[in-house]
């Protein structure tokens, strides 16, 4: 039973991370469309936030498997 719950938890983490990355990407594209001159700063912030989100997702999956 515990293994099943761990897999469900890992699945929820992956779904949440995917939704978060989609929201980040969509919002960044909207912001770049509004202010093309700020594209570099927006893209840099987007990449940093996405990397932190993926790191958090990986940590949650690793902790859930133990």
From TrEMBL:
Site-annotated residues for Reversibly protonated during proton transport: 54
Localization terms from the record: Cell membrane; Membrane
Purpose: F(1)F(0) ATP synthase produces ATP from ADP in the presence of a proton or sodium gradient. F-type ATPases consist of two structural domains, F(1) containing the extramembraneous catalytic core and F(0) containing the membrane proton channel, linked together by a central stalk and a peripheral stalk. During catalysis, ATP synthesis in the catalytic domain of F(1) is coupled via a rotary mechanism of the central stalk subunits to proton translocation.
Domain of life where this protein originates: Bacteria
PROSITE patterns cross-referenced by the UniProt entry: ATPASE_C
Family stated for the protein in its record: Belongs to the ATPase C chain family.
The protein's name: ATP synthase subunit c
GO cellular component terms, A-Z: plasma membrane; proton-transporting ATP synthase complex; proton-transporting two-sector ATPase complex, proton-transporting domain
Name of the gene: atpE
Bilayer disposition of the protein: Multi-pass membrane protein
